[in-house]
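Deliverable D4.2, example record:
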Amino acid sequence: MFLDLLGSAVCYVHYADFVPPAFGKLLHTNRPYHGLVLNDPGVARDYIFEDGKVLHTEGNTLFYLPKGSSYRVQRISGKGGCYAINFDFTPQISAAPFMQVLRNAESVRRSFREAARVFGTGITGLTVAQRSICEILLAGYEEEKHAYVPDSRAAQLAPAMAKIHAEFYKNELRIAELAALCGISEVYFRRIFHALHGKSPKEYVIDMRIERARRLLSDGSFTVREVAALCGYFEETHFSREFKRHTGCSPSDYAK
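Output generated by the structure prediction step:
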């Protein structure tokens, strides 16, 4: 993903700065520029795109926001802010939003700081900011490579994945049981799972439940209460909150 962006040249930097807590728009329509963002530690925010995709970003998460995208930001927790850089590529590219939790966030944060420091100081400042963007993309690519899971490790999760896909809407799946199916510890199971899927087992199951709910609501044959039950939610209110968090609208509005 980062490698795709590295294939194009940064032709202009439109903005580079630190965005304090509670600042910045929550609703973005047809984003005018490409963007890179790095959250402060302890921050959690959801970026909910118009196609239903959700980036659940937490502290030290580096993520990419595509030019032309429309999305809503939902602040979850944390008192920190984020660093942001808006820029253009040449030639223009079309890419999907993505994220990477960084192991070495401080080096990337230094590149953001440098870009923010020099932005607006003239041609030299813009050149330094462009260089900072390349450094950030390269660091993200290196982290992405290290997160790669060999086929042999991914194959270890096969029994658990089969159970998840068969029962994600039936019962509360316990990590201990899934890890035992694979013959590995819970800690190792979580680590491989996140490296492979970019999210926790719980988030993976929720995504599957919400996708099932979207299909059932679109069909129009079931009430919201029935859809909640068919997707593994015992309480309709819990289901409605989860559905709105992921899609940006309530189940009843989605079904209209």
